[in-house]
Design a protein that fits this description.
The complex is a heterodimer of chains A (106) and B (158).
Chain A: E1 4-7, E2 11-12, E3 17-24, E4 46-53, E5 56-63, E6 72-78, E7 83-91, E8 96-105
Parallel strand pairs in A: 2-8
Antiparallel strand pairs in A: 1-3, 3-6, 4-5, 4-7, 7-8
Chain B: H1 2-24, H2 37-48, E1 53-55, E2 58-61, E3 65-68, E4 72-78, E5 88-95, E6 102-107, E7 115-120, E8 126-134, E9 139-150
Classes of the chains: A mainly beta (106), B alpha+beta (158).
Chain lengths: 106, 158
């Protein structure tokens, strides 16, 4: 679980626009590289990232090999109520990781 | 004196090295299948369908000169009030010369601001296109040209 880094403000005023930054530790092997022997290295990337707030989806991304290793994604949302952000990364070879963060809205 | 000379010499060698890299890159032809402006156009068509893509509203922040194509910071923002009836549905980013034309699709069902940041790979100096789909069904785009000195994706690994 330590492989995800999440940056969400702990507190916000109602109606504030807040930035959420996420970083997932992952090799993001493109599937286009070869070994010195000429063998193709199979693709191993994170293909999908989703963020839900209190169960409702607020952000989703389809990722491709063109995303750098350790995919960093940042986005914005509006602080409407206190609650929990759930983050989910899904990738090749059965890769799944989740993380969560809470926010207090006053 | 010596101490002063050493870094200058190092810097000179460094510059010479990067100059050599620049001159070598156009000659590289061992690259596997790569996206072409046509495959990029096809990838864009799968997203926009037959709709007209207008220029404007979208801003693409990416360094014009990149030393290392393996990790390039990129920010896409769209001028939009993000209100209940006028908002950005999704942002799509495409490239011309990576092995694949798609870079990322970002869906913003509840974003406070139509802006996303990520880090991308660039296999060559090329044009990047960002397209935004608005809630009224219109598409807006912007493009940026990036010069890459050290390309991503192509190197061999042991």
């Amino acid at each position: 679980m330590a492989s995800a880094l999440i940056n969400v403000p702990k507190k916000a005023k109602r109606g504030d626009i807040i930035e959420i930054k996420t970083l997932m530790s992952h090799i993001m092997e493109t599937g286009f590289r070869h070994t010195a022997a000429g063998k193709l290295i199979p693709r191993d990337i994170v293909t999908s990232f989703t963020c839900r707030f209190n169960g409702a989806e607020i952000f989703r991304a389809d990722l491709f090999p063109a995303i750098a290793a350790n995919p960093f994604v940042s986005f914005f949302t509006v602080a409407t109520e206190s609650g929990r952000f759930d983050f989910e990364w899904i990738g090749d070879n059965g890769f799944t990781e989740t993380a969560s963060a809470t926010i207090a809205v006053e | 004196m010596r101490k002063r000379l050493a870094p200058t010499r190092r810097r000179f060698l460094g510059l010479a090295g990067s100059a050599a890299t620049i001159s070598v890159i156009p000659g590289v032809s061992l690259r596997p299948a790569e996206a072409t402006p046509e495959t990029m156009a096809a990838a864009i068509r799968t997203v926009v369908g037959g709709a007209v893509v207008q220029t404007g509203k979208v801003k693409l922040d990416i360094p014009p000169l990149v030393e290392n194509g393996n990790t390039v910071p990129m920010t896409v923002s769209v001028a939009s009030p993000m209100s209940a009836d006028d908002y950005v549905k999704s942002i799509h980013v495409f490239n011309e010369k990576n092995p694949q034309p798609n870079m990322g699709n970002f869906y913003l069902p509840k974003a406070g601001r139509a802006q996303i940041s990520t880090r991308v790979r660039l296999a060559d100096s090329q044009k990047i296109i960002a397209i935004a789909r608005l809630s009224d069904g219109s598409f807006w785009s912007v493009s940026a040209d990036v010069v890459v000195t050290l390309a991503a994706c192509t190197e061999e690994v042991m």
